[in-house]
Structures are given as C-alpha cells and as structure tokens.
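We treat protein structure as text, and this decision shapes the records that our systems exchange. The remainder of this section carries one protein's record, kept here as part of the documentation:
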Amino acid sequence: MLAFSLVLNSLIFFLVLNWSYLKEKRENPDYPDKPISKLVFFPLALGIVFTLIVDLFKGIMVYQLIFFVIAAILLYWIFYVLKK
C-alpha cells in the first residue's frame, strides 16, 4: 500500500507541476528543455515527503486508537471489576 501511495502521490505532483510545460513542449518542440531536477526530482521528492507525512499521521491514529482501547479496558476494570 505504501508503494502505491508513493507512486500515486509522485504522479499527481508530477502532473500538477509539469502540466503546462508538457503542453507547451507538445505544441512547440523548440521550447527550451526543463532541467531534470525540476522535471522529475522535485515532484518525486514532494511525493516522498507527502507520503511519509500521511503515513505518519495514519500511524499516530493507530497508536491513539490502541491507547484509547487500553484506557477503556483499564477504566472498565477499575469501575466494574474491582467494585464487586
């Protein structure tokens, strides 16, 4: 799932950042070339960073759910099991 997310995010950044350049290059082949660092590497880096941030938030959410379940079990045990 991580690889799919990385590819999808990188593709979206590539299209967003290079759409006008690709359109202009198709219409006018003499249009100057864009450096590969701006054409490929920058959208790839943004895709990697975005994927890492999103997966970090997913991980934080999972840990919060685990802590919530542990706290709920502990409170149930304190108020209902120990009360007897």
Q: What stands out?
A: The helical segments are 2-27, 36-81.
